[in-house]
Design goal:
26 strands, about 375 residues, about 40% strand, 7 helices, alpha+beta
Length: about 375
């Protein structure tokens, strides 16, 4: 195998592939990136026991791919990426039976790297066939919906609660609801598919898919790496598949029955609403929480009055701090207490200039956070009984 390619382009693809490879002290085939060089393209694969990455590189002005000899081999993900981090410009890669030579074309031939490889036949079989039935989604909408919810998932890995470490994708009414909860807070974001895909989506209803929250960050990095505006999504009985441009990824679903999240959403009857500037509220809560030892875990008391909101926190051994910010109140004045992070986290992912916080007349009523104007996202937090 022998080919040349621009190092910056190849480095970007290798970085994504290396995120998927198995990181362990045991040197398994899953610790390697599989590279196959055909007549006019390069195929890159990486996988662990739960997810896969597949990328096809063809010649473009950006990557300057030139293939001289076909072949295939397994490369240590960490090693080849570390080498490419030191390179710039076009690079030539030549592989024999046991090692690969990596040479910067613009520099003297005396500057080169050698690394040992493994036989391609050692790699486990990785299926990269994309299902025939799929839906097409605007990647920005999907990315925002996943960002709006994934932070609310749980980190509890105990048996019986594993499903809470994921994000639920609930297919219903020709739409997809992304939902995450750790039982103390919940985030719900609704997104739609292209018109051509709605019949496909309807055929899947009702369908619940739970994907690991830790995979969301990787999905976002793949989206950022590819210029296409839409992605294809498909599911089977065990995996979620996403295809975007030359890239295809998959992840195993988390087994388990998710909560009936619709029952958690408060009704609007008898509730009170306060409208605030999102950035002002976020910065105020960050400052207030930062002066207490608990930080973002600090309980914050909200006192909603006719024209202003008083946010305060108090600890017996530390003292008390408070801030007052302007507001617009609809309904009754009231008071509730909630962990700082339950409000700060939603404010971080929201994009609107203003937000509405809803609360009940009972201090045990759930708290809601929504965008102004109304958006397809709802955040819910349980109050603190202090």
């Amino acid at each position: 195998m022998k080919f040349s390619i621009h190092s910056d382009y190849f480095k970007r693809i290798l970085a994504l592939a290396n995120e998927i490879v198995e990181k362990s002290s045991i040197n398994t085939a899953y610790s390697y990136i599989a590279i196959q060089c055909n007549e006019n393209q390069i195929e890159i694969k990486s996988a662990d026991r739960h997810k896969t990455f597949y990328y096809v590189i063809t010649h473009t002005k950006e990557n300057k791919l030139s293939i001289e000899k076909e072949g295939k081999a397994l490369f240590s993900g960490e090693k080849i990426l570390a080498i490419f981090q030191t390179l710039s410009g076009e690079v030539e890669i030549e592989v024999d039976k046991t090692k690969a030579q990596i040479i910067p074309i613009a520099e003297t031939r005396e500057n080169e790297h050698q690394m040992y490889i493994r036989a391609y036949s050692d790699y486990p079989e990785v299926h990269n066939t994309f299902p025939e039935t799929f839906v097409t989604i605007d990647k920005k909408i999907m990315e925002q919906s996943l960002s709006n919810t994934s932070f609310a998932s749980s980190s509890d890995l105990r048996e019986g609660t594993i499903f809470l470490t994921g994000v639920l994708l609930h297919i219903k009414d020709q739409k997809i609801n992304a939902v995450a909860t750790d039982r103390n807070r919940m985030s719900l974001s609704e997104f739609t598919v292209s018109e051509q895909s709605r019949e496909v989506l309807q055929a899947l209803e009702p369908k619940e898919i739970i994907i690991p929250s830790k995979f969301i960050g990787f999905i976002k990095r793949v989206f950022n790496a590819e210029s296409e505006e839409q992605c294809d999504c498909a599911v089977d009985h065990e995996k979620l598949y996403i295809r975007l441009g030359n890239c295809q990824i998959s992840v195993n679903q988390i087994s388990g029955k998710y909560y009936d999240y619709a029952r958690i959403i408060p009704t609007t009857e008898g509730r009170n609403y306060v409208t605030l500037n999102r950035e002002t509220l976020k910065e105020t809560l960050i400052k207030l929480a930062s002066v207490f030892k608990k930080g973002r875990e600090q309980s914050i008391q909200f006192t909603c009055e006719e024209t202003s909101l008083l946010v305060s926190a108090e600890e017996k051994e530390e003292g008390k701090s408070q801030y007052r910010i302007p507001e617009e109140l609809k309904g009754n004045s009231g008071q509730f207490t909630v962990k700082a992070l339950f409000i700060i986290d939603p404010l971080h992912v929201m994009k609107s200039e203003k937000v509405i916080i809803g609360f009940g007349n009972n201090k045990k009523d759930l708290i809601t956070i929504e965008s102004v104007p109304a958006h397809d996202t709802l955040h819910i937090a349980a109050p603190q009984n202090v």
